[in-house]
Design a protein that fits this description.
Layout (H helix, E strand, L loop, with lengths): L1 H16 L6 E2 L10 E7 L5 E7 L4 E7 L9 E2 L8 E6 L5 E6 L12 E3 L2 E3 L5 E8 L2 E2 L3 E2 L10 E6 L5 E6 L6 E6 L1 E2 L2 E2 L3 E2 L9 E6 L5 E6 L9 E8 L2 E2 L3 E2 L2 H4 L4 E6 L5 E6 L11 H13 L6 E6 L1 H7 L2
Antiparallel strand pairs: 1-26, 2-3, 3-4, 4-5, 6-7, 7-10, 8-9, 10-11, 10-12, 13-14, 14-15, 15-18, 16-17, 19-20, 20-21, 21-22, 21-23, 24-25, 25-26
Helix pairs in contact: 1-4
């Protein structure tokens, strides 16, 4: 009965959210640029963002800072640039970061191979690594324990306030990704367990968890989004997860959506999509120039970062 009530609350949230604002492009031409950009994670003051940029072969973690008016030109993060690094996730207090990487897990100079989706992916495997904030910058990356890195296809971390780490691993039927959580207790990561709704039947990826673990947003091809990936939200009450609910056409109508992340305020959701903003025809001379500029900078069918306020969903669920 509790699970059913919780699901009904989520449905109320969806009804409320239908009247919210449409997704907005994030920092077009700077953060959302001419490459694939995804997975933004922010310092607690919201003034520094880390994300990853790729062209499908080359992957780097990037950093940009906000001066009150605009975001700075992104630079490669000091602990990235040598290996295939992606999907950074800052702890809510900003004291450390976890990210996925294909860097070697031994003393070799060979990138980690991966297996998922029933296929081998040479040099494209992933484990989770951690860097700690120091007075002089960041520590050297340290690989997390086997309780989390139990395979060569572990990606997309999210960090809760108590240090628990959520992530995806390719353990489902046919190598589908499932969402896991490794609780952090007495300074030790516990053996990761799949979330109860992520059974391996569907492809579940890219979790974004609230700092207090009261809700989680992730991408999935479960109905009604199949076969494409859409965003779902699930709420946690009294230690139990409710059933995931589709975020609806206001968001998922943009097509395949991945790499969900929460902003520093705890309710702004960032995600990546290759959605192209269409022009209004007939175009004026000025709109034609603007359209050309935008397609050269970001509106080009590659992955860009978008945001939407989750407050209507969250308000509805907490009534």
């Amino acid at each position: 009965m509790a699970l059913r009530t919780f699901s009904l609350l989520a449905c109320v949230a969806l009804f409320t959210a239908a009247h919210g604002a449409a997704p907005e492009i994030f920092a077009p031409g700077v953060i959302s640029g001419p490459a694939n950009d995804a997975s933004p994670t922010f310092t607690p003051d919201g003034k520094t963002v880390y994300f990853f940029r790729s062209n499908g072969a080359d992957y780097d973690l990037m950093v940009s800072r906000f001066n009150g008016k605009r975001w700075s030109e992104p630079q490669i993060a000091p602990f990235s640039g040598q290996w295939r690094d992606l999907e950074p996730a800052l702890s809510p207090d900003g004291s450390f970061m976890v990210f996925a990487s294909g860097r070697p897990t031994d003393r070799s100079d060979k990138a980690l191979d991966g297996v998922w989706g029933g296929s081998n992916h040479p040099g494209r495997g992933g484990n989770l690594w951690r860097v700690d904030r120091k007075s002089s910058g960041w520590s050297a990356p340290v690989r997390l324990s086997e309780e989390i890195n139990f395979s060569n296809a572990v990606f997309s971390p999210a960090v809760a306030s108590d240090g628990s780490v959520y992530f995806m691993a390719a353990t489902g039927a046919g190598g589908k990704f499932q969402i896991y959580c490794s609780a952090f207790q007495k300074g030790v990561y516990q053996m990761a367990q799949p979330l109860p709704f992520s059974t391996g039947r569907y492809l579940d990826v890219d979790p974004a968890v609230a700092p207090d673990q009261s809700f989680i947003v992730f991408s999935s091809n479960r109905p009604p989004e199949s076969p494409k990936l859409g965003l779902f939200i699930a709420f946690r009450k009294d230690g139990h997860w409710g059933e995931p609910v589709d975020l609806g056409s206001e968001v998922n109508g943009m097509g395949g959506i991945t790499e969900a992340k929460l902003g520093a305020d705890g309710h702004t959701l960032y995600f990546s999509s290759s959605y192209v903003v269409p022009p209004d025809y007939p175009k004026s001379e000025s709109s034609a120039r603007e359209g050309l500029r935008d397609m050269q900078y970001w509106n080009n069918g590659l992955s860009n970062i978008w945001s939407i306020d989750l407050a209507p969903w969250l308000t509805g669920a907490r009534k």
